[in-house]
Recover the amino acids of this structure.
């Protein structure tokens, strides 16, 4: 097989603009350039950032090819790609974690500011440096991680963004200490990743907070010791956390909802002077309000992208743990659709029993 091949016509999920229908269209995918690979997608999944992208975050450029979580098989490679070959199985996501040489691209284009996708002659944008809800897509080789081909496809898709972001936030970004206390706001895939990350770091108490009562059981499967549903009390979530910790608050909190008003709550839930809050999730609003006194009391607020994980040295460890079934990732897999039924997926994510929707591409 030659290192590069011809233009491929295939199907992909396209968003045409804010508030406009999402459609499955025939598109053209160019061959990879010198440092790129073209991937035949096998399985993808839905992350909240995909939904935010249809609402104009992070760049608001359309038409937009959706998806940034997924696993596939390399179809062809550019002539300067040395570490990957046709047939390798890969997780696809923005994995270089703030590398200045290979930064995460939020422009909707490739690192050279061009696109490998088009529809009826019009350029197609994508969320980051890939578009996984397409039968084929092109990515720079630096954003590709080779994994064991026997890995569960759905689980590989989960670790390519959301779950690993939460896990890495507890492991790498916060470096949760053994015996410490933790609060996780929002028990979706990201929050559950933070829960088990804190558990494996040796946290003595992990409090899960979610308004969806169905998340209690999911949280327990990943390692929460306590569950708070703020809707069950007149007190705020931070006050409820303090009630469980003798009025002190926790050592670490993780904001995994993307709801702006929860940010101050997650800060207030930590100990004065030493508490640390990691902001993980994002909403469509670029500005988040923060309570001034929550910061003035000596707490630390830190953001993270992909949980502080690096592609080869860190994500490969997550993939190995996934392969060894050290994570109960089957608890995330609640629904499955085909690419043709992608609009059904957007309805499924609104259901209270939904955690992750898998898109079967094969």
């Amino acid at each position: 097989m030659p290192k590069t091949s011809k233009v491929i016509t295939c199907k992909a999920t396209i968003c045409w603009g804010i508030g406009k229908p999402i459609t499955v269209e025939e598109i053209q995918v160019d061959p990879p350039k010198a440092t790129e690979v073209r991937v035949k997608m096998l399985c993808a999944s839905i992350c909240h950032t995909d939904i935010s992208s249809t609402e104009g975050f992070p760049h608001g450029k359309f038409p937009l090819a959706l998806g940034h979580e997924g696993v596939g098989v390399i179809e062809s490679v550019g002539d300067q790609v040395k570490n990957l070959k046709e047939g390798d199985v890969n997780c696809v996501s923005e994995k270089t974690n703030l590398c200045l040489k290979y930064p995460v691209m939020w422009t909707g284009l490739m690192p050279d500011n061009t696109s490998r996708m088009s529809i009826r002659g019009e350029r197609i944008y994508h969320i980051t440096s890939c578009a996984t809800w397409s039968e084929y897509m092109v990515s720079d080789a630096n954003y590709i991680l080779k994994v064991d081909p026997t890995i569960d496809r759905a689980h590989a898709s989960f670790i390519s963004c959301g779950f690993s972001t939460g896990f890495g936030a507890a492991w790498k970004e916060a470096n949760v200490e053994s015996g410490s206390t933790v609060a996780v706001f929002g028990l979706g895939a990201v929050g559950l990743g933070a829960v088990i990350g804190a558990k494996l770091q040796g946290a003595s108490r992990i409090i899960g907070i979610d308004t969806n009562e169905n998340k209690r059981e999911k949280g327990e499967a990943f390692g929460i010791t306590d569950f708070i549903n703020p809707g069950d009390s007149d007190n705020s979530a931070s006050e409820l956390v303090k009630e469980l910790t003798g009025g002190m608050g926790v050592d670490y909190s993780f904001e995994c909802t993307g709801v702006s008003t929860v940010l101050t709550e997650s800060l207030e839930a930590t100990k004065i002077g030493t508490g640390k809050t990691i902001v993980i999730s994002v909403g469509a609003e670029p500005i988040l309000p923060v309570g001034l006194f929550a910061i003035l009391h000596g707490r630390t607020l830190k953001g993270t992208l992909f949980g502080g994980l690096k592609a080869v040295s860190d994500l490969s460890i997550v993939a190995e743990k996934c392969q060894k079934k050290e994570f109960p990732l089957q608890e995330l897999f609640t629904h499955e659709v085909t690419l043709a039924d992608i609009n059904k997926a957007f309805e499924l994510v609104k259901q209270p029993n939904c955690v992750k929707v898998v898109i079967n591409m094969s």
User: Anything to note?
Assistant: The chain has a mean pLDDT of 91.
